[in-house]
Amino acid sequence: MSVKVALIGARSRSFGPAVIADLLLSAMQKLGRKRKIAAVNVPVRGAISNLSDDTGVEVPAWRDGREMQATRMGTMLVDGHAHLFSMHEIPGVLRVMDGAGLSALAICCMPTNRAFRCDVNLNAAALLAKAMRPRSVYVFAGLDYTGRKGEEPDGKDLLRQARALVAIGADGFKMLEGKPNVGRELGVRLDAPCYDDFYGWCEAEGIPIVLHVADPEENWLPATDPFLAERGWSYADGAYPSKEELYRQAFRVFGRFPRLKVQLAHFFFLSADRRQAHEVLERFPSVTFDVTPGDEMYRNFAVDPDGWRGFFLSHRRRVVLGTDNTIGEYCRDNVAEAGRFAEKNVARGIEIIGLLRAFWETRGKGPGNQSGLALPPEVLEHLYAKNFLSRAGEAPRPLDIPGIVEHCLRMRASIGDDPNRRHVAREIDEIAQRLRAIGE
Ligand SMILES: [Zn+2]
After folding, report:
1. Has residue 186 got a pLDDT over 90?
2. Ligand 1 center to 341 CA (angstroms)
């Protein structure tokens, strides 16, 4: 049997094919053991996509499994790092939330739109998702670089953007600018003076930033894996800054803005170096690491489970759960269809959360078939919810729906008639229309 697997979001490198096959297999095995719960009430008129949201949500067997101690104890579960690439994925994201029992979810927006392959950020769709679930969806907005390739951004403009986005309902910012290919494409570095006012304002206002810096070490080696080269994530040709240089840039930012709340995506790509991970957390008290996979991360943790267990016990207040879940389909050859949500990806998103929980809560098999760490309940509480909520806020910031509509109209104007952006332009029109309906 051959299974075509959709690519997952912007993770450093998605679960490898073996892991995905594993996921699908275990999902299929569990199919017979699922039961239904009541339909989910989504407060929006009409179905966004052709798939309606009122068909009930499958609850996987692991949710009431006795071995899952966090379930037994009623611990909250927050996904602090997920993605949304199109408004059409929103019903699927909500189904993952309900199916996996998430209390809240943080949508991390990209500065460019991979689904539609253009340079417009993904804030509008995320704000619509939040308008549909204002009490449980957090939005980490992306800064806008539309039409600005290679030019140094204007610091005053970045600050203005940040203020405006928080005023209409963004809870924080996602910066993918520290990922080597993205930084190079945008012509920016994390410690460039143009970001000073932005960082300074976020620090003063307590606005958190989910920051992606570098990538796994292997991405700098000559590419043996076509997956990396295909996605532009192979940095062996010397045209990209080194991992160490990217860390130096990040450390300069943390040093200059010591109270800036930074959630470092994918464990800051330090899962192969526990000592350095420890040193970073000791040196910069305002940063946290999210444990959003990267397949290398869980493999590295499993190499020395006792050592890592000790790490998570002593740094229990510095780690945040994340999934990198996204449930859209990338259609490289058909952007008109990009972002349509696929039912199988909903099942996979729920299943990934089950695997992550198996890893953190039990000695059983987690991502990549790696044996888990079985952390105690008070550590799980911090990892799963408290660390995220204490920094991003116990509840999402309030939304200004008319303000978001205005924001969409401004985005729409900046997109213009560029044929490369016509799909995203159409979607922003539709988002504005939905938001007006919600606002009425
Ligand atoms: Zn991500």
Report:
1. no
2. 18
